Amino acid sequence: MGGCLLTALVVVWVLLGAALVSIVSLEALTMEGQCLVPDLVRTYGEAGWQVWPPGEICTFEGVIVIEPDRWRAGAILFELVLGVGLVVLWRRSHDAPDPDWAT
Q: Is 100 within a domain?
C-alpha cells in the first residue's frame, strides 16, 4: 500500500514539475520586446522578465500592467515541499527493517 502511494506521489511530482518547466520555458522563449497594454487600443509597453513568481511582465510608463499569475509561486513551493517529502519517505522506507516473514 505504501509503495503505491509513494509511486503515485512521484508521478504527480514529475508531471507537475514538467508542466511548470514547460509553461515558464515556453513563456521565456516566446517573449517579445513589446507587449500589448490591456484596456488601451493598440498601445504597447515594454516586456520584461520577473524572477518571482517567474514570468513575463509588461510595463507601461514605468507601471507594471501585466504580471505573472500568483499560482506559479504556490505551485513551485508545493513542488519543492513535495520533492523533499518524497525524499524523506523514500529514505525512511529504505531504512526500515525487513519484516519477520521476509527472512
A: no
